[in-house]
Design goal:
The structure holds two protein chains of two kinds. By secondary structure, chain A is α/β, with parallel strands linked by helices. Chain A has 16 helices and twelve strands. In chain A, helix 7 packs across helix 12. The chains are: A alpha/beta, B alpha/beta.
Chain lengths: 388, 293
């Protein structure tokens, strides 16, 4: 799993896809302890291994979410329907060290993966442009993996009785500092301090103690390597969440913050226009909002309410799962051979193909089709297969 | 009410620029910092941009003198700043050179709505500023501006006031700006009721999310706080953007019916004059937010 976001997407889809007639099997190159909702399989990004897995589990569609699985997809085409489920890559120019390699990976996908995939999906309209694939279709992520505590009311209402709490969530190490906007957040803190605003600043994220020290030095409280439960509490407890990121394919944290009743400010970069209700066109624009809400907490409460209502109405994992199910269904007319790649595979492929017809997987598959298509739809499909 | 969607097309793509370009704007900090001088003295400054058009100049200078009289009667200072963007017509040059109480002229401006108005705003010393088009005929209704001023200051949560404006034939030119709520163009702005008959009820006001820059009165402190008109817009949408920035903070925008007030603007923008980059920028910045209003 690369990054928090991708694992959340897989987990939420795994929970919900079955109600739309699909079982989701998750393959990954490594597993961390945070992912437990569904059986997860360690599968190397190797076409042979993936096809073998598909054959064993009667998989009908392969949905790739990240590199290095994207790069394998061209080798699967013709054997099984493949869908690119693109979460995007940060603009290579933000990476001084490996920018060229990142650009190479990007170009490889544009030239070799997207053209042969049966579908290309993205998680934002921004990504459709960013991956330079206009035919890509958008399936938004959801927000309801975080609990719904409702609006901040009663004791949670933001009053003038205490300093404003402004925070962000980012990876604290130097590697992604430029695209995650670490310097921009520092500049924001400095500007707000210069104007004598009484504000507490904090930053949560993965990093080392020495990363944390860099924030402590400027009076920002770092919260390092916290578990998911702490993240929810943190985002709910902030008065304003700000994402200084300069690239986001979606930005789950800012969506989570807003879904937890905290206003989220994002800059006009990446997919923020789609996911940050309060979009700042510049640093000063963000400062303007924060300074105003610091002195007018009634207006801040209104902003929180707008953000919460908007995000909860826009992003729902049930819609996501339904849309993914529909996209998978749309490619199932493509025949599945489970053919393996390489010379030795042909015999194995023929044997497997024959065996598959008779095994219990067929019944399982029929049940899935019946749940998805209904009785008439299933009969039509069966008739079609028989006639064929 | 029938909506005219003829101006909408696929060119409103919200991501007309690359992420690198967009992030460069954010981090480049291109914002025009407003003057830090306090603008808390009660009073109003009217800002008008002008190029030639001597008949209009004569009208708004005469109108300003009447407007000023209504303010001075109430003990409220009233000033006019004209931004001349290169007038060469001798009659206009002469009119602008006349000495009129409370009026100053800034010469040599190069027209760009946002930048010119922001530059002129630096000279404002009053707590209220009115951005006014030169073709709004205040000479025929000088009381309208004092009515707008009173409306603005009647409620501290009101950040800006715009006016109901009429075409010469009496139909509605502007009665506030509203937003489309259709999936393909969620948030696109339009003038509801335009060119329709309007039953005037002077003194009535109503909240809207935005009003036209042809007549836009704003609290100076708030105009400065939100950074003025965004100069990224070349030709369109600056006024709506400004109103939405105020709305986003939590304030209200009011539209006032101050009686017949004519705006000579053409009925519709001519095909080909639309600025699609501005529209895309506006849609990117605001289509989400306006869906919450």
């Amino acid at each position: 799993m690369r990054g928090f976001g991708v694992s959340i997407v897989a987990e939420e889809l795994a929970k919900r896809m079955s109600q739309f007639g699909w079982d989701l099997y998750v393959g990954t190159i490594r597993v961390d302890g945070n992912f437990s909702a569904t059986p997860t399989f360690l599968i190397n990004p190797d076409a042979q291994e993936i096809l073998k897995f598909c054959r064993e589990w009667n998989i009908e569609v392969v949905l790739a979410q990240t590199t290095p699985y994207f790069e394998v997809l061209p080798h699967l085409v013709g054997h099984i329907p493949v869908i690119v489920y693109e979460h995007g890559d940060p603009t290579p120019a933000f990476f001084a060290g490996d920018g060229a390699e990142r650009e190479r990976i990007r170009q490889y996908k544009i030239q070799n993966v997207y053209p042969v995939a049966n579908k290309v999906l993205t998680i934002s309209h921004f990504l459709v442009q960013d991956i330079e694939w206009p035919d890509a279709e958008v399936v938004f992520n959801g927000c309801n993996h975080v609990p719904d505590f409702g609006l901040k009311s009663g004791q949670g209402t933001i009053t003038n009785s205490r300093p404003l709490r402004v925070g962000t969530l980012m990876r604290l190490g130097a590697g992604e500092a430029q695209y995650k906007g670490n310097a921009l957040f520092r500049e924001l803190v400095a500007k707000l301090r210069k104007n004598n605003n009484d504000i507490e600043f904090c930053v949560m994220g993965r990093g080392t103690e020495s990363d944390g020290d860099e924030w402590r030095e400027i009076g920002v409280t770092p919260i390092l390597n916290a578990p998911d439960e702490a993240k929810v509490e943190y985002l709910r407890g902030l008065d304003i969440f700000i994402s200084p990121s300069m690239w986001e394919g979606f930005n789950l944290p800012i969506v989570e913050a807003q879904a937890l009743g905290t206003v989220g400010i994002g800059f006009d970069a990446g997919a923020h226009p789609e996911t940050a209700l309060h979009l700042a066109s510049s640093l000063d624009d963000a400062v303007s909002m924060i300074e105003h809400w610091n002195v007018n907490r009634q207006h801040l409460n209104l902003a929180c309410k707008r953000a919460y209502t908007y995000i909860r109405s826009q992003f729902d994992w049930n819609f996501t799962a339904q849309a993914i199910a529909q996209q998978c269904a749309s490619v199932t007319s493509i025949s599945v051979t489970y053919g393996t790649v390489g010379a030795e595979a042909k015999e194995q492929e023929a044997n497997t193909h024959n065996a598959r017809k008779a095994d219990e997987g067929l019944i399982k598959k029929l049940v899935r089709i019946w749940r998805r298509e209904g009785v008439i739809g299933t009969l039509k499909l069966v008739q079609k297969r028989v006639m064929h | 009410m029938k909506l005219n969607f003829s101006l909408l097309d696929s060119r409103i793509g919200i991501y007309g620029t690359t992420n690198s370009q967009r992030s460069a704007v954010v981090t480049g900090n291109t914002f025009t910092a407003p003057t830090t001088e306090l603008k808390n003295a009660a009073g109003i400054t009217i800002i008008i941009l002008n190029l030639n058009k001597p008949n209009l100049v004569r009208g708004f200078i005469d109108g300003f003198q009447k407007v000023r009289a209504t303010f001075l009667d109430a003990g409220v200072p009233c000033e006019l700043i004209i931004g001349d963007t290169g007038s060469t017509v001798p009659e206009t040059v002469k009119l602008l050179s006349n000495s009129v109480g409370g009026m100053t002229v800034e010469y040599g401006m190069k027209y760009q709505f946002s930048r010119c108005n922001n530059d002129l705003f630096q000279k404002v010393r009053t707590n209220t500023v009115l951005f006014l088009n030169n073709d709004v005929l205040i000479n025929d209704n000088p009381e309208s501006i004092k009515m707008a001023y009173d409306l603005l200051h009647s409620n501290e949560n009101t950040a800006a006031v715009s006016a109901v404006l009429h075409f010469e034939n009496g139909t509605l030119q502007h009665g506030g700006i509203d937003f489309l709520h259709i999936p393909s163009h969620e948030g696109f702005c339009y003038h509801p009721g335009a060119q329709q008959p309007w039953e005037s009820q002077p003194g009535r006001s109503f909240p809207m999310a935005a009003g036209t820059g042809a007549f836009l009165m704003v609290r100076s402190e708030l105009f400065a706080q939100v950074g003025g008109f965004d100069e990224a817009y070349q030709a369109e949408c600056q006024d709506v953007d400004l109103c939405l920035k105020l709305k986003r903070l939590g304030y209200d925008i009011q539209i006032g019916d101050f009686g017949r007030l004519v705006h000579l603007e053409n009925a519709t923008r001519l095909t080909g004059e639309e600025n699609w980059e501005d529209r895309s920028l506006y849609m990117r910045r605001w289509s989400g937010f306006v869906s919450t209003l």
